[in-house]
């Protein structure tokens, strides 16, 4: 059974007209490129290495990092007025406006003042200050799945009762928290302890923060504001250079498309209210499949017409999550909530098949589920496994993560047999990906590690990020073989080279962006959503 809604794409920006307006407004008809360069120092004139310099015009920004001498250069700009801003960790930002003409190189230099503001440091910074105990793990498990600690920091000073009231009032735009009374009281008491009126604030010297690497200094970021104010959850890139993303919040409720070449958006409304488009996958025929967690359904977009077809899921309350496509074109996706299933959809027959996930044989002491409970009870009949990340290997074996119990499972579809892999010290796991040799990579979310599972031997290796409390969320196996993850709480994109076992962390220029699942274009640029700021962006590593 399916429901179909034919909609004309809401064309937000028409490519030719938009470009004409941009060129007319910025250059009077000239298309010659311009550039901005300068130096960023502290008040004493000492160069600031790794400062972020961002130039912004209309709905687009371009960012680069300063080098060892504090210098930067941003090229390829359209002539006109650009807002230039510079920021560095533990310094107050600076801003000025530059008007540049075609072919001109303007200069914008900054002297930044020392400024320690706990509202402008990341969640990973805060976690180096907070104790590494069971209470803080519970707080991470309860809060970091949806947002960073920054909304909590902004409300610092509340009592436990006030925190409880705030939590009960959350969820108007995408997820409504449903916490049992004992757990609500437990989480509220932790919030009062660490973010109440008498709680200590971290000093600058108490924060452990690794310096940006030399490799990251070569990167260029581009960011684009989505026309509809929305919360993009995840994205993917098709072979024609389109970025597809889901506008996850209830009020937007759209699928978005961004044409990389023309830098224009189109948006396609979903007929089902509060569908919450979650994550997307592009099939070989170019159609874009999307899980709709709010509706518990599966949707597909025809890129030629903008027509969205919705297929109600077999378990409507499942909260369908991540999709993956096998060699036969079947769409696999995880069903969370109380469903605890993995589902397959055959586009030819339009039929679903579900596989009930078995309760894990063992439940690690430090799983996110046990950390969330006030009593610490961990009996198997109380477990919600919560299947989440999913990927398919070259043999069409289905690999997926169990978020709530920190497990990796393999499903053999012909037999329906599950194989369980226990990962030492894994509290909760998000994204899963398979490389060209069928190694399984996974994002150890609350264990703050990147993991690798060799399916031939069952051997598991975990790698620690330079940022101690990095929280890897979405995971992408790039064509180069590099593994990319979004550091949800560290506000970074991170690359791992399996050959050298080296990490490179790239700070996102926009504060508290909250990025989840990523995409890669034909040029090797990494595209990412910014859930909290309503943007999408690309990273060119340089």
Kindly describe this structure.
The protein is mainly beta and 542 residues long. The protein contains seven helices and 38 strands. The strands form eight sheets. The chain has an eight-stranded antiparallel beta sheet with strand order 8-7-4-5-11-38-37-36. A hairpin with a 4-residue loop joins strand 14 (254-259) and strand 15. The longest helix has 15 residues, at 181-195. It starts with a strand and ends with a strand.
Give the topology.
Blueprint: E1 3-5, E2 10-11, H1 15-27, E3 34-42, E4 52-57, E5 60-65, E6 71-77, E7 80-87, E8 94-100, E9 105-107, E10 110-112, H2 123-129, H3 134-143, H4 150-154, H5 160-168, H6 181-195, E11 220-225, E12 232-237, E13 242-247, E14 254-259, E15 264-269, E16 277-282, E17 288-292, E18 297-301, E19 308-312, E20 320-325, E21 331-335, E22 341-346, E23 351-356, H7 368-372, E24 387-392, E25 398-402, E26 407-412, E27 417-422, E28 429-434, E29 440-444, E30 449-453, E31 460-464, E32 472-477, E33 483-487, E34 492-497, E35 502-507, E36 519-520, E37 526-530, E38 535-540
Parallel strand pairs: 3-9, 3-10
Antiparallel strand pairs: 1-19, 2-15, 3-6, 4-5, 4-7, 5-11, 7-8, 11-38, 12-13, 13-14, 14-15, 16-17, 17-18, 18-19, 20-21, 21-22, 22-23, 24-25, 25-26, 26-27, 28-29, 29-30, 30-31, 32-33, 33-34, 34-35, 36-37, 37-38
